[in-house]
Write a structure and sequence with these properties.
Strand 14 and strand 15 form a beta hairpin. With about 1400 residues, this protein is of the alpha+beta class. Helices cover about 15% and strands about 50% of the residues.
């Protein structure tokens, strides 16, 4: 007792049993692990988050703990805790570990680590054994040695089946067909990329790859590519595998030939087709651990393939038309043609043939075969190789010649992409007329539009028949012959012309073809203004044909012309000619009048008339030339070089006068600009018809630059100004009219053209960034539309621009085969790259990216850089200099989604919204400690997983990120979270979805709508999941090939959810329940019961708050509140220190007191519920959601022992003395003030008393005795009560007034019902006193019997009851049975206050006796 020292107390040996650690069997669980980088010590850096369940009642705190991780006998990874470790007793502890996967040199070690990676990729756990290696300070050897005995089985957890290969891009694919390999063509690729990803950041180099690809089309798998294991190259940083393969069979399944045919047909005519690639891969992966073998890497991706678009993506260009040879049944025409293959496919088709159609009639066949050349030095004996064709259609533009193979001759193939078509001109039946029209138009200078069409017979390769049958090239424009076959005609008159009427004529025949021309019969008519001058009347020259070999010019022999000798015809000829030309015929007028007046007169003639005409024709000719009008509507510049270019002109030459004239430019014409000569032009001759001239003047010439400096200035002027003028002049024109040649005629004409005017209105479309550029930076592919206001067309060939944004050089853009046609919009494709940037330039590109993704149009300045015209060996100086002065303002349209846009935007696919694909709030910590945090609580997250997708194909990795997130529910903005920009580690996206882990600390979650905010917290509290929509924007720094780009305002609009507490499963577990006293105002307002509340939090949300006060309900009555302060709720099991405050609204409420009764005296589970109310939290945002928690309680007994002292007087007075032991199970003193008790057995009351106490205090968790309570009434009488003594127990029903703690909360009239309380019965009598009392009883009994016989029955049984007072106790002693004594707690024995007063006689019974056979005896003890 306090203040008393009791020396010499011996503590007996005690056995203490504690639960041990049990080897932490099944107690270590790896929650997650990461491999972020290579470890400086070698191998791969490893971090782990684990939980350790300690089953022991002993906790241990260590400054560190280390383990070795084994798989079998292979040491995989040593790990060490990152800080101090506290293994709390009988609880789980979080454990953060760091270490490394160590390098492996043995085959077994490499195979083991490979197995771990393969299991992870395939979604399987890997079994490992964790062996203890160190613990605590190194000098504590017993602990460090002891820890080594730990052998703990656990697993490396999987994260589900991993999608490793994200994309497979067939950047180039070649399929070579033969008839034998129609369904197993040889496949090759020199550029195939596979983008892969792992949820880890350590470097991984795929050095070899083996794949089996199953190719699918429109949902059907139709072929397989079994790519053998071969070396590969890996861009480790971007995680892109570059591989090639050659001559691998593209094996079509036997039952899928039709699908393959359909695929080839779709690819042939379509723009883009999608194939599905699936299968598995095996890779050799070079890592810091060693060379690992990764097996069974499953993949299933879609890959786009650009189609051939029917070879109609660009118009078919036909040139170099040549009639090659004539055969008895057809005419062979050869042409060169350029076909454009827009795809990345190379297709080898073998021999193909197409029909040639004109005016809906098939007039021949066009065959694509190989080019053959005859070797003149070989004899016929050497000619033994036949032509073997193999048409290969390659990507881009390629020239294909049209010709005729000659069998059985020595051959050599041209360069690989040069082939020709045989055009067999052989119209039949109704097509003959159409065929003749085609040839006639061709010879007469009229372009001919034809169609080349495929059919099922175009090839003998079955798989290609459907594809080639859909080829339909139209229009295929065959350019007309631009030169005349008959270039000049001479006419001579013999002296006897008047007598014979026959003149002599000859003509010059120019053969432009390879085939020779043989004229067998010649017929012609000569007319002038409707006047028939004569004719050649079908002269047969077959005996000596007029023969012109290919590409030669011959003069025909003189042929007879039957001249019209009618004088009127001659007069009309001369008169009309003189009148039209204003020529005074002088004396001829009178002669002609005479002839007219005398038509039968035949005077002699001479050449006087010719002389007179010649005398006046020269001035007249110059006058006509001066008055002529020369205009041009179009000019096209081609074949450009530093010295000049070819020039084709279209316009008109009118007002030439009344004479037909043949105009020849014997010397080049001088071109002057702004008064300075800059060039000369060589032009061919032209025939001008009388009066009409040349209304459709089309000619070709060549311009030679004579002053490079001035011409450069002109070219610059041409690009920037709206118009320009040239003066074209010469003094060396030769003009032939009326058979007279006039030399040295002067010509000077000013011609004007619309110029380029700075090329306004250039636009960009289909802007793509498909990949990183091999030269550095980001690759660009885009289309551009260049509207040209100029009347000049120019073949620029390959041009390069430099693009700028806000004075930052973005990078070059180049295009090939660019021809700016006059007066039209030219669409071209440009390729280039965005250059790597630093500093402010990199910031400017961040603005460009941000605005682009936000859908904002932006202005780029595009400056000319270089020009290399088609056919030139390098840049042309004068043109490049002028081109570099060109600065275009170009609009880059923003790529914002718009559902109203058609199929074009379907490729864009909601770019701005789909950058952020999803955001999963994997964990969230919210703190509400003060009122200012009620609607702006600090929030934290260590693992919020965002998934993002680069809308383009270049590599992009987020390395910094910040977000403004608005939590929206039901269309209402609930709260805003502004996360500052911090370092992040995102996955690399090249169009694939990549992960980004977002973490933030103490960022205010600001309510935007307080009602909705409270409802959201209520939903989190009560529901399993709370659906949310996350809106807002993200600012990131992205690691790209151009640098770390800051991109702002990336729109966020994704569905997400929070996993809620789900009302904690509507269940809570309580333990460590105690009552420690009272509290509140004055210390007596309520009872304080500390306990531990265990709540299961199924969510990933952590809530830190204070002053949680939840009403506790028992049987519908509030009995108090459960106060948790502070309240730290984490995911999983939460043991929370709780204070239950018993404080019913009415202290006398019977239901509330029934709770206390059951709590104190029973071990029953009490049906308690927690119902939240408005006062459950001091924070309005939380109080709405706290409700409906269930608690269960188990408590020990209250009254542990009763002692009843019976004297002989009791037999007469029916009064006994009672004391009882009370065990206090609480953590506070119990002050018992009053007890009203009834006790008995089997529902029958035997004793009753009421007792006030002045100082009955039961210390916490101890047992105290009440002290003797005298005069307890035996309500059944003493004699009738003796029968229950052998039972040794009493059922007690009491009403108690008590306080919890001295001066604490008073519990009035607490009802206690306790069954089978162990009971001792004592008789406190001396021998002498007992004898004396017995005599008194006998005398009294006799007297009573004589006075009232009827009353004897009530006394006699008492006196004759079976009592035996023995000198010693037996084994069945009621008051000291082993069962009764052992039921008392050894630590708090309760002694009767009369125990030491005097010798005690104890009442016992023999087990074999009954109540009726017991004989009372008394002895001293």
């Amino acid at each position: 007792m306090v203040g008393i020292s009791v020396p010499g107390i011996t503590l007996t040996k005690k056995t203490v049993t504690l639960k041990g650690f049990n080897g932490l069997k099944d107690g270590v669980k790896i929650q997650t692990f990461d491999l972020p980088s290579n470890d400086p010590s070698g191998g791969i850096h490893l971090t782990l988050e684990a939980t350790t369940a300690n089953p022991s009642q002993v906790g241990i705190s260590l400054n560190s703990i280390g383990f070795d991780t084994f798989v079998g006998d292979v040491l995989v990874a040593p790990v060490l805790s990152t800080g101090a470790v506290n293994l709390a007793p009988e609880s789980s502890s979080n454990l953060s570990l760091v270490g490394r996967l160590i390098p492996q040199t043995s085959d077994t070690g490499l195979s083991t680590v490979s197995g771990i990676f393969n299991n992870f990729v395939q979604g399987k756990d890997s079994n490992v054994e964790v062996r203890g290696s160190s613990a605590g300070p190194k000098d504590v050897t017993w602990l460090n040695e002891g820890i080594k005995s730990l052998r703990i089985a656990t697993v490396f957890p999987n994260r589900g089946v991993q999608t490793i290969i994200n994309t497979i891009g067939l950047n180039e694919l070649q399929l070579l067909f033969t008839k034998d390999t129609a369904y197993s063509p040889s496949a090759s690729s020199q550029s195939t990329d596979a983008a892969f990803t792992l949820p880890f950041g350590f470097p991984l180099d795929i050095t070899a790859l083996e794949q089996t690809l199953t190719i699918g089309f429109e949902g059907t798998s139709f072929a397989q590519l079994a790519l053998p294991k071969a070396p590969s190259k890996t861009d480790v940083e971007k995680r892109i595998i570059h591989l090639t393969f050659n001559n691998v069979p593209f094996a079509v399944f036997a039952d899928q030939h039709l699908t393959f045919d359909k695929f080839l047909a779709a690819t042939t005519v379509g723009k883009t087709e999608t194939i599905h690639l699936s299968g598995s891969a095996t890779a050799d992966a070079k890592t810091a651990v060693g060379l690992l073998t990764l097996e069974g890497i499953e993949f299933s991706v879609d890959s786009p393939i650009d189609g051939l678009q029917g070879l109609n993506a660009k118009p078919v260009s036909v040139h170099n038309v040549d009639i090659n040879h004539g055969f008895p049944d057809y005419l062979l025409i050869e042409v060169d043609s350029t076909l454009f293959n827009p795809s990345n496919l190379t297709i080898g088709t073998g021999d193909v043939s197409f029909s040639l159609q004109f005016e809906d009639q098939t007039i021949g066949m066009a065959e694509m075969v190989c080019q053959l050349f005859h070797h003149d030095s070989l004899s016929l004996l050497d000619i033994n190789v036949e032509c073997k064709s193999n048409l290969v259609i390659k990507p881009g533009s390629a020239n294909y010649s049209i010709g005729m193979p000659r069998p059985k001759i020595f051959v050599r193939l041209q360069q690989p992409d040069s082939f020709f078509q045989d055009v067999h001109y052989a119209p039949q039946g109704g097509a003959v007329s159409a065929g003749n029209t085609l040839l006639q138009n061709f010879v007469e200078g009229i372009d001919v539009n034809t169609t080349i069409a495929g059919n099922m017979g175009s090839t003998d390769i079955p798989s290609l028949q459907s594809a080639l049958s859909q080829i339909h090239l139209s229009p295929v424009s065959i350019p007309a012959l631009r030169s005349t076959l008959i270039q000049s005609v001479s006419l001579s008159f013999p002296t006897d012309i008047v007598q014979t009427g026959v003149a002599s004529t000859a003509f010059t025949l120019a053969n432009p073809f390879t085939a020779s021309i043989n004229l067998l019969k010649v017929g012609a008519t000569a007319t002038y203004h409707g006047i028939q001058l004569g004719k050649i009347d079908s002269v047969d020259v077959s005996s000596r044909p007029i023969h012109a070999v290919g590409h030669s010019t011959v003069i025909s022999p003189n042929l007879p012309l039957e001249y019209n000798l009618d004088p009127m015809a001659t007069i009309q000829l001369l008169t009309i000619a003189s009148q039209q030309n204003g020529v005074d015929l002088g004396p001829l007028t009178q002669l002609f009048q005479f002839v007219i007046s005398n038509p039968d007169f035949k005077p002699p003639t001479d050449q006087t008339a010719l002389f007179l005409i010649g005398a006046v024709a020269g001035p007249v000719t110059q006058h006509l030339v001066d008055g002529s009008v020369l205009e041009f509507t179009e000019a096209n510049i081609t074949n450009i070089n530093n010295n000049g270019f070819d020039l084709s002109l279209a316009g008109s030459l009118t007002n030439v006068g009344p004479l037909d004239a043949f105009i020849e430019f014997t010397e080049p014409l001088t071109v002057s600009w702004q008064g300075q000569p800059i060039a000369t032009i060589t032009l061919p001759s032209v025939c001008a018809a009388a009066n009409s001239g040349v209304p459709d003047y089309r000619t070709n010439g060549h311009l030679s630059i004579t002053d490079s400096s001035k011409f450069t200035s002109f070219a610059t002027f041409l690009l920037h100004e709206p118009t320009f003028e040239w003066t074209v002049s010469t003094s060396k024109v030769r003009l032939t009219a009326l058979g007279t040649i006039f030399e040295n005629v002067s010509l000077s004409k000013v011609v004007s053209f619309k110029a380029f005017n700075g090329l306004p209105g250039v636009t960009i479309s289909n802007f793509e960034l498909p990949s990183d550029d091999l030269a550095g930076g980001i690759h660009i592919e885009t289309d551009t539309v260049i509207p040209s206001p100029a009347q000049l067309g120019i073949d620029l060939g390959t041009v390069t621009f430099q693009s700028f944004f806000q004075n930052t050089l973005v990078g070059p853009l180049s295009g090939d085969n660019i021809f700016l046609a006059p007066g039209v919009k030219t669409t071209s494709h440009l390729s280039g790259r965005i250059l790597p940037q630093t500093g402010n330039d990199l910031d400017n590109l961040g603005v460009l990216f941000s605005n682009f993704l936000a859908g904002k149009d932006q202005k780029l300045i595009t400056k000319g850089d270089s020009v290399q015209p088609s056919g030139s060996n390098g840049p042309v100086t004068w043109l490049s200099t002028a081109f570099k002065s060109l600065s275009l303002e170009v609009t880059l349209p923003g790529q914002k989604s718009d559902a109203s846009i058609g199929t074009v935007s379907q490729r864009i696919l909601l770019i701005s919204q789909q950058v952020i694909q999803s955001i999963a709030l994997s964990d969230l910590t919210v703190t509400l400690d003060t009122q200012d945090q009620a609607f702006a609580p600090p929030a934290s997250s260590h693992f919020t997983l965002a998934k993002y997708k680069n809308p383009f194909g270049f590599s992009l990795q987020v390395i910094e990120a910040g977000q403004t997130l608005i939590l929206n529910g039901g269309g209402v903005d609930i709260a805003q979270l502004t996360i500052p920009k911090t370092t992040a580690v995102g996955g690399v996206s090249t169009g694939n979805v990549a992960d980004l882990v977002i973490s933030f600390e103490n960022v205010p979650l600001v309510a935007l709508n307080q009602v909705a905010f409270s409802q959201m917290f209520a939903g989190v509290t009560l529901q399993e999941n709370v659906g949310l929509n996350l809106k807002g924007s993200s600012d990131v720094t992205a690691k790209t090939a151009i640098g770390n780009v800051v991109i702002s305002g990336i729109e966020i609009d994704v569905a997400s959810s929070l996993k809620g507490f789900n009302a904690f499963g509507h269940t809570a577990t309580l333990n460590n329940v105690s009552i420690q006293g009272s509290g509140g105002v004055g210390g007596s307002e309520y009872i304080i019961s500390p306990l531990t509340t265990i709540l299961q939090n199924p969510s990933n949300i952590t809530l830190n708050t204070v002053d949680i006060s939840l009403p506790v309900i028992f049987s519908g009555t509030k009995i108090g509140r459960a106060v948790i302060d502070p309240f730290h709720l984490v995911p999983g099991e939460n043991p929370s220190i709780t204070e239950f405050r018993y404080q019913p609204d009415n202290a006398n409420d019977t239901t509330a007191q029934a709770f206390l009764s059951k709590f104190i005296q029973t071990g029953d589970a009490l049906d308690l519920t927690i119902h939240g109310d408005d006062n459950s939290s001091p924070f309005a945002s939380l109080s709405v959601g706290l409700a409906q928690l269930q608690l269960g309680l188990n408590q020990p007994t209250f009254i542990t022992h009763v002692t009843v002292t019976i004297t002989l007087e009791s037999l007469l007075t029916n009064l006994v003395t009672v004391d009882f032991d009370v065990h206090n199970p609480l953590g506070a003193e119990l002050v018992i003030e009053f007890v009203q008790s009834d006790s008995g057995v089997n529902g029958k009351t035997y004793a009753s008393f009421g007792q006030h106490f002045d100082s009955f205090i039961v210390p916490p968790n101890q047992t105290a005795n009440s002290g003797p309570i005298p005069n307890v009434l035996l309500v059944q009488g003493a004699m009738n009560s003796l029968a229950i003594i052998p039972l040794g127990v009493l059922d007690v029903s009491a009403a108690t007034t008590l306080r919890v703690g001295q001066g604490g909360y008073q519990i009035p009239w607490l009802k206690l019902d306790q069954k089978a309380v162990p009971t001792t019965y004592n008789l406190a009598l001396t021998a002498a006193a007992l004898k004396e009392k017995a005599k008194m009883i006998q005398a009294t009994s006799s007297l009573l019997l004589s006075v009232s016989p009827s009353s004897s029955s009530s006394v006699s049984p008492s006196l004759s009851s079976s009592l035996a007072i023995q000198s010693k106790t037996t084994a069945s002693e009621v008051t000291a049975t082993s069962a009764t004594e052992e039921s008392k707690p050894s630590s708090a024995p309760a002694e009767s206050p009369n125990a030491a007063a005097e010798p005690v006689a104890k009442l016992t019974t023999e087990p074999s006796t009954t109540a009726k056979s017991v004989v009372p005896t008394v002895s001293e003890t």
